[in-house]
Specification:
By secondary structure, the chain is mainly beta. The protein has one domain. Helix content is 15%, strand content 45%.
């Protein structure tokens, strides 16, 4: 299942993934890393730019904008509980046209 997440920072995203039990902290020789607890793909996107919408004469209908919040896509290959899903900062409603998707 694919989820689109949005927080203010990457650290907030990682904290939510740890809280949901999707990532776990692993300490090796004093260095802490985050490792998946199951089959997982993470696409850290960061901020996104929304392009301007123009008509056929190149007249700007809607100006472009930057969404500086931190965006992340995850693909989870295991069944998550409702409690886990509730801990994730899922974009709701999801975008009609996602900025980036898994192939």
């Amino acid at each position: 299942m694919d989820y689109q997440l949005r927080t203010d920072t990457k650290e907030e995203t990682d904290a939510a993934l740890v809280a949901a039990g999707i990532l776990a902290e692993q300490v090796d020789e004093g260095v802490t890393t985050l490792v998946p607890t199951g089959l997982l793909a993470i696409d850290y996107i960061g901020s996104i730019s929304k392009p301007s919408i123009v008509d056929v004469d190149c007249v700007v209908i809607t100006p472009g904008a930057v969404d500086s919040r931190f965006h992340t896509n995850i693909r989870v290959g295991f069944e998550m509980t409702e409690e886990q899903i509730a801990l994730l900062p899922i974009v709701d409603p999801p975008p009609a046209i996602p900025y980036r998707v898994f192939a």
